[in-house]
């Protein structure tokens, strides 16, 4: 819980004790009312209210009304003993219940702090809207396909010193709501959680140019879903471009305020029909990735804002993504040789990649939860598993001609590749320390790209590591070919 949330709870309990345990006095009642209002004001002004504290706010409102009523009473009359005892018992029970609910809810969905990235660069960002004039939109009102991206880039710490840090956007809460089927209001507090990102600062001049990574989020998700990984990469000298894909991302809000919302898939009668539908969907996303690369090439030659002109090393470009974004990664690698390496965080293999394999280094990370389900015999009920997955995986790994890695992370669930363990350690960390949970993903993703885009050999990719006992390498799919 945040500091003034604790203060509010403590003041509520203290005021309740004062009302129950002390004789009514105008000066005392006025003092308690003032203290309670001050605690609420400091909390609301400095930390901002959030829905997890709503029961405590209700308790505070009730106490304020009671104190106000007592102050307005002209003649105080003592209650009969039995009535007073019942009244005080009910008051105490209600306040303890409401305060307890708020404490529990605040601990269940805390206002967390992102772990510090390990690199020496600060992190800048700009958001830009892109229109692909060569592709029509397949859903919504039509027209040309439009994307929203964020470019996160290395900045000098001196440039960001004293400047406000950007917070998670409301899009993250809406995405979590869609993924888990929970009210989005439960996650409205994420907009109060700061990142380590500063908007609209200069790109660091420390290096002449920087390697570039594209990031594709999962279905019903957002380009802001894995800020712990993105910040780690940027702080260590990468430019990362996060893409929101209209109608498969949770919500894409354009610069004019219009939005494109996630559209659920239709029902399909057979697994083959669903498979073919996903092949088409991933082809659209892979085309988005290639279009972003086209745009980056144009900016590198002549950026209208001058920020990236000549500063992007596109000979060292990679791509990574989670779930549907992992499938996008694999297909983009198969279709576009400009991507020199890629990481799939538990994605599938829909499209060309399943038939041809890959010519670029590739790492696949699977959660222990899905690995256990795959090992079970009988029909699979998890929507992430389908009958074509294992044959496609075997085909990709067998046909690939560059280095491949297949890692399984024990205690991970499918969403563990995002920042979800930080959002609710109780619900989603699955027995891991939440900071360690996100550190697994960010460390292995960075190690892979450091080795294959920066030509820096990484011990972390050589085999089991004592720092990450949850991670195992599958020898059937892990091959050094180069």
In short:
With 482 residues, the chain is of the alpha/beta class.
Task: Based on the model shown, name its key terms.
15 helices; 482 residues; alpha/beta; Rossmann fold; ten-stranded mixed β-sheet
Could you tell me the mean pLDDT?
Answer: 94
| Cα Rg | 26 Å
CATH class of the largest domain: Alpha Beta
Describe the sheet with the most strands. Answer: 10 strands, mixed
**Structural category:** alpha/beta
Oligomer: single chain
Unreliable spans are none
Tell how many strands the DSSP assignment holds.
12
CATH architecture of the largest domain: 3-Layer(aba) Sandwich
| First-to-last CA distance | 50 Å
Helix proportion range = 40-55%
Strand order of the largest sheet: 3-1-2-5-4-8-9-10-11-12
The sequence of SSEs as H and E is: HHHHEEHHEEHEEEHEHEHEHHEHHHE
Beta-strand share of residues: 15-25%
What is the fold named in CATH at topology level of the largest domain?
Answer: Rossmann fold
Q: What is the CATH superfamily of the largest domain? A: Alpha/Beta hydrolase fold, catalytic domain
Could you please describe the fold and organization of this structure?
43% of the residues lie in helices and 17% in strands. The protein is an alpha/beta fold and 482 residues long. It has 2 domains: 106 residues, no CATH class; 352 residues, Rossmann fold. Strand 4, helix 7 and strand 5 form a beta-alpha-beta unit. Helix 1 packs parallel to helix 3 and helix 8 packs across helix 9. It is elongated.
